[in-house]
Amino acid sequence: MINNKELSFQHCIQVLTIILSLLLVILMIYIICKEKENLNKYENMTDTTGEQKEQDMLTTLKDAKKSLDTANINFFLACGTALGAIRENKFISYDGDIDLGVFKSDVKKDDILKIISIFENNNFTFYRKFGEFNHGFEITFKHTKTNINVDIFIVYEDIDLATNTKFWWVASYTGACDNFKYGKCRYKNTPFDLDKTSFYNMTFNVPPEKYLVESYGADWKIPKQFSYDEGISDGYTNIIKE
Q: What CA–CA distance (Å, rounded) separates 48 from 28?
């Protein structure tokens, strides 16, 4: 026969088993809740980071526009900035700088020092320049508050001797471009008239859609993320192979 002590011991074991099971359930619920809490924190952090980047890009563009307007230099949104404005009506999430174009006919060599001075009075520092004013000039400013670069490309006119047709081109440097003729990449576009667009409640000059087709391919409306060197290799469709 089982005595009272043995019954009492078995009862205690059963009670402890139940208590441990409950504690295990509570622990599992706690772990699940913490994981959801951490996930929500991460998602909120990601959204905030994205919103902050967009705000920083906008601040940089506003100050660049103010600088060029003050210098009385006509300009247009170019490259990835133009792509974002026309395709998405916002900055491309994975783009990290502002691209602007200026026709050589709209700027003189003597204007460069004035432009640098005005930018430096509007929250920028002069960062670097490439090329010569008459061939492949590119100048970059870095925003002192957002740390975002503004690349300004001079647009040149040239003649395709094979077809005797006029085209426009800009240049970029470093990376894979070091292996090209002249030590730079040249990007070719058919001459175009600028359009106007509203972008973040401001009016900007932008190139037409054919500029984007020539630069990014017929499927330019489909987002494609690639690095600078990847773009030179297989992304930009208007590179002059030379």
A: 30
Q: What are the φ/ψ torsions at residue 16 (nearest 5 degrees)? A: -60, -40
What CA–CA distance (Å, rounded) separates 216 from 184?
19
Q: What is the pLDDT of residues 80-110, one digit of tens each?
A: 999 999 999 999 999 999 999 999 999 999 9
DSSP string for residues in 108-130 = -TTHHHHHHHHHHTTTEEEEEEE
Amino acid at 184: K
Nearest alpha-carbon partner for 121 in 109, 129, 113, 110: 113
How many helices, marked H, and strands, marked E, lie in the chain?
Answer: 5, 9
Q: Which residues, in sequence order, are bridge partners of residue 205?
A: 196
- With the C-alpha atoms ordered 134, 168, 104, 129, is the resulting torsion angle positive or negative? negative
- CATH class for domain 54-234? alpha beta
Domain ranges of the chain: 54-234
